[in-house]
Design brief:
It is built from five helices and two strands; from the N terminus they run ββααααα. By secondary structure, it is mostly helical. The chain is globular. Helix 2 packs antiparallel against helix 3, helix 2 runs parallel beside helix 4 and helix 3 crosses helix 5. A two-stranded antiparallel sheet has the order 1-2.
Length: 150
C-alpha cells in the first residue's frame, strides 16, 4: 500500500495525495463548481506534482531529513534552482490574488502549502517572496488548520 492512502469505510483504497484531496474536496467549498475554476485547481495540483514537490520536497528531504543520502552538490543545486523557479511562479500568481484559484481557499492551496511552508528546511530562503509569505499566513489562519507537527 502506498503512503498516503485513504481507506474508505467500504474497504476501497485511494492513493496519491492530490487524488485524495480531490476526492475529499468533492461537494465542498474547497473545490469550485465552475468548470474553468475546477480546471485551474487541477492545473495547480499538477504543478505541485511536477514542478514544486520534486524540487522543494526532495531538497528538504536531502538537507534536513536524510542528509547522508544527499547527492552531489551540483544535483542539489539544480533541484534548488528548479525549486526557486516554482516559487517564482507561485509568487507571480499570488502577487495579484489572495489564493491560487477563484479568490478563495481551495484544495490547490492545501496541496501547495504542504511543502512551501517548510521550504526553509531545504535551504530555500522565502524572504524575497512577500506574496507567498502573506499567502502562507492566510492558509495557516484557515479554520481547522493543523500544523505539520500536529
Amino acid at each position: 500500500m502506498q503512503v498516503p492512502t485513504l481507506v474508505l469505510d467500504d474497504g476501497r483504497a485511494l492513493a496519491e495525495s492530490n487524488a485524495i484531496l480531490w476526492y475529499l474536496g468533492l461537494g465542498t467549498p474547497y473545490l469550485p463548481d465552475e468548470d474553468f475554476e475546477r480546471a485551474k485547481v487541477l492545473q495547480w495540483m499538477f504543478f505541485e506534482q511536477y514542478s514544486h514537490e520534486p524540487n522543494l520536497a526532495v531538497v528538504r528531504y536531502w538537507v534536513s531529513i536524510a542528509p547522508a543520502t544527499s547527492p552531489r552538490e551540483s544535483v542539489l543545486e539544480a533541484r534548488r534552482k528548479a525549486g526557486y523557479e516554482a516559487l517564482d511562479a507561485m509568487e507571480r500568481e499570488l502577487a495579484t490574488r489572495q489564493f491560487l484559484v477563484a479568490e478563495r481557499y481551495t484544495i490547490a492551496d492545501i496541496a501547495l502549502y504542504a511543502y512551501t511552508h517548510v521550504a526553509d528546511e531545504g535551504g530555500f530562503d522565502l524572504a524575497a517572496y512577500p506574496a507567498i509569505n502573506r499567502w502562507l499566513d492566510r492558509v495557516a489562519a484557515q479554520p481547522g488548520h493543523a500544523p505539520i507537527t500536529a
